[in-house]
User: Fold this.
Amino acid sequence: MRKGLALSVVALAAALAACSSGSSTATAPPTVAWSPGTAQAANGTAAPIDVATVCGSSSATYLAELLHTPPTQLKVMDEWADVVPGGKQLLVSGTVTTVHLGPGDLPIDHPFGDDLSMDVKVAPAFAAFSQKLGTAPSDVKPGNFHVEISSGYIPHVPRPSSASATQTWRQLSDFNLTGFQPGFAHPAIGDPVVVGGRYIVDCGHPDYHTELHPMSFLAWAHQDGSTTVIHVYENAYRDTEYYNPDLAVLGLVNDTARFANPQTKRFPPYLIDEVTRLIGGSTQQLRTFELVGAVPPAASNSWQACAPAASPSAHVEVHYDLQVRPGASVDVSPADANGCVTVHSTTSAAYSTSNVSLRTCVMPWSYINSIAGQALATSVDTRQVIKKSVPQQYWPLVDRAPLAGCADALSGPPVSAQPTGQSIATDAGQPFGVYGIITIRRK
Assistant:
């Protein structure tokens, strides 16, 4: 935790204790946290997880099986397997301990580019949800929760597309790792955060840790002198790990019929079908086209943020510049008694997620081998692995660089870094359920 933040938290605790009607047990609320009862109602109780059931194996990891197992006999279908069938959104809060913003992720399931990855030292109420289910050394420190989101799902400034016929996935991801809305790239180490996201087991790591992937909601606080500055955004999309050879359907996020399409499959069976299409002449090179899905927003969410300490009689002054989609609403309510504000968001039946546009990017075999080698911690020639299942006369088609689905980062209108008013604007043209900046101080 940064020194300034630590001092402000201590001072806030002292101030609240002084104005708590003489109660010696009063404690200061965190600088940012879920409102009482919100996370508990959403999360329920942490239950034991059977990794063999969730991932398909308790020893094999995602895609590593291809090194020694025929494609038709693979057991691990997903890199990020749902702890709860059908998906569950989990809410946690805590303090950021590590931040990593690309590169190194698999192109096939990252059409919007490399991930922002963070570890969060979570409050005790959430520690039981962070589990290590494998025997390998843990990738996540005890008491921490790992959370991730593709860089392209973070609010970016509007800018010309980077598209070209020869653009590689690496070039696309590098483009998406720049151009964030000012201050929105990621929290700093030591910043308190509230996070919501899909609760999964990472089946690509031998420690089989649980994590939130992708984040669907993120708000974080930092101190700027006597002001608490809050950045917040709601992500409406996820990488589904389902694939279809029709590029036109990848971004139709509200079309659930895509998943019933006979050609839509998880990656291992999709790869088998794609090789069959290659041999049959319906494609001239391998393609890994992943469907992007919608993350339905919560019907109601509530979280709190607090100003730095001041005189117990000080008035809470709050300013904000927020953007919402039609059907979403936000209420920001200050409370002089504790120097905090409660931010309550709701969505109605009128809310809908906008579709996204995907195109193709090139994945050179050299890059695929590099990323696969990092993931598997060994040298691997993925092209030769695939050729084992392809008649030799078709090897020249396998030699062609595969294509991946890809897309430029999501963007929205600018928001003020130092709001002077209280603005909530509805904009159907921006893709975030809510995003913007809130500032709080006591004076």
In short: Residues 30-442 form one domain. Helices lie at 3-18, 38-43, 51-55, 169-176, 267-280, 365-376, 382-387, 395-399. Confidence is low (pLDDT under 50) at residues 1-28.
